[in-house]
Amino acid sequence: MAIRWYWEDLQPGSVRDLGSITPTAQEIRDFAAKFDPQPFHLDEEAGRRSVFGGLCASGWHTCSMAMRLTVDNFLRESSSMGSPGLENIRWMKPVYPGDTLTLKHRTLESRPLNSRPEIGLVRAVWEMFNQRGEQVLHMEGYGMFKRRTPAAPAAPAST
User: Fold this and answer.
1) Is residue 152 part of a domain?
2) Is there a domain that residue 15 lies in?
3) Which of 34, 91, 125, 159 is the most buried (most CB within 10 A)?
4) CB within 8 A of 156, min separation 6: which ones?
5) Domain coverage including residue 107
6) Is 20 part of any domain?
């Protein structure tokens, strides 16, 4: 797949719609069984007895769905070089089977890496909303992207 987006295209304030996903009850149970086997993620009755009021997705499942949408609808066509990490994850509301989740990506900051002139660093926020417009996920973090036109390395200081 051809590269459509480089570091230069990720200017502060730019927003991308990264699509939607709708988890099923079985997908929620399958993820939980493997990665977060808390009762309210595995069993409808246990979910009803919990503060969530029903079977709900693990927050890590919600993050994983956000990552899938990010890869499918952005990173595969970008010059992504990975990420040095996340700063902030908040699970704002539970995600239930059949919820349709929509993901937005907004660039907050962008700067070149001094040590690697061919790469730029982007700080971004991902916000996921359910079909009622309620925010279910807030995630902030960094991405590294190749530059379309790498900056020349800094000249050595003269003496």
Assistant:
1) no
2) yes
3) 91
4) none
5) 7-146
6) yes
DSSP letter, residue 72:
H
CATH number of the domain within which 83 lies: 3.10.129.10
For residues 7 and 148, what is the distance between their CA atoms, to the nearest angstrom?
7
Q: What is the mean pLDDT of residues 74-81?
A: 97
> What integer best gives the mean pLDDT of the chain?
95
Note whether residue 32 is domain-resident.
Answer: yes
pLDDT bin (cut points 50, 70, 90) of residue 33 is very high
In the block, residue with structure tokens 């079977």 = 55
Q: Can you give the pTM of this predicted structure?
A: 0.91
Exposure string for 76-97, b = 16+ CB within 10 A, e = fewer: eebbbbeeeeeeebebebbbbb
pLDDT value of residue 158: 60
